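Two proteins, back to back. First:
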Amino acid sequence: MKELSRIQSMVFLLGGVLMVIGAAASMLQTGWSPYVFAVGAILYVAMQLQQRYEGHSFVVRRLRRMIIISDVLFLVAALMMFASQSNFFGLNIVNYLMYVHNNWVVLLMVAAILQVYATHRIDNELSKEKKL
């Protein structure tokens, strides 16, 4: 995997912290929490997409695809946070409550689980490659 520079690593960390702050602040129903989460998600995803894998391992490539899917889920969760504050999709109230209102949490949880799993497995696979 391509290593991030020091500044990129700091931006990556800042994005993760902003995502946590935005998600935690949403429990207090603050108006600014989706903005903080969205900025954090954009920074986090942008820096994660900077990391490339130049090797030939099929397993690591598959795990990288899982990370990209989870990155997309982070961005969709940010969009759903905005949609949870107001019904800007124009849905009737029953569909809004059923499909949109606070369902960003489900997307965030799935994305986080994919990130943890894929990151752990990539680390194991890369350590196996170094031993060979």
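And the second protein:
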Amino acid sequence: MKPERIISFPHLGDYYIPIKFLLNKLTKLKVIESPPITKKTIELGSKYSPDFVCVPFKYNLGNFIETLENGANVLIQAGGGCRYGYYSEVQEKILKDLGYHFEFYTLVNSNRITPRSFYQTLKKIDPKISTFKMIYYSFLTILMIRYMDNIDDFIRKNIGFETKKNSFLDLKKEMLDSYTKCKGYLSLTKRYFYYKKRFKQLEINKPKDCLKVGIIGELYTSMEPFSSYFLEKELASMNIEIKRFTNVSYLLYQKSLQRRKNLRYIEKYCKYTIGADGMDNIYRAKYLIDQGYDGIIHIKPFGCTPEIGAIPIIRKVCQDGKMPIIYFSFDSQTSETGIKTRLEAFYDMLQIRKG
């Protein structure tokens, strides 16, 4: 008798909720999400990873090990856009060398995720998936992600000024729990507008001249809070309005649509894309300067080639615009105390400069 097929995938912020929703609707496999990322995750990933790979590889490998230990035997990897798009074979080999038995699927085709590659991969996992269900629930999942990202943008602007501690995060948890129970388009849309109204009703005490900081950089460290040592939470505790560009909505459809416009905007500094989000972050730096932000934080994993290529250009943009910027590079040995100390010094400098 064949064992029950149990599917899982790496953790990435709150996005495990729409991914699990989609897989539950499309396949007949049991779906479990990876455990939330902890210090154990990165320790496991680092132990079995080559030294030269980037931190997202190590986090994902740690995720896979933890979820295999929890009973998963069908794994999905969705990395792409940079050299991570070529890492799936390495991860599969490492896990099989460790003695795990599983099926491994990647959504990447030619270093990109396309609707065609996504459809073909899910058909391999479960050949009985209907095309209609695939289209409908994929649309619904993209919409859910868009709704989540809209609310997250609102939270970043206001969470640092809440009058009741954790009021935003408590309501967000309630909203995400509600999304898991939605049955269709109308159900999801009603829940979104209901919670959008409730978020706007939360009491805040926000001054007009508050500090505003933009976060730019590599996508994984931007979207997975643990990998950046909960940087956004730390900024909110300093009463700072936060702007972050990278989210799944941006990766799914905004990035390709905005590429030409962004290049025209920064033609003085960059005339072509430089891999992954490198060009996008040059655009973001100039945009934040033009919008009157007080500072920029650039984050990346140690050794991230596209961001290393973009940093000298970003530095030139910020010099021309007289914009303070601080750079954080994360790896498995990064000190949380060191990050907080540098962040506090940056905050003090922004306050003095604004004053």
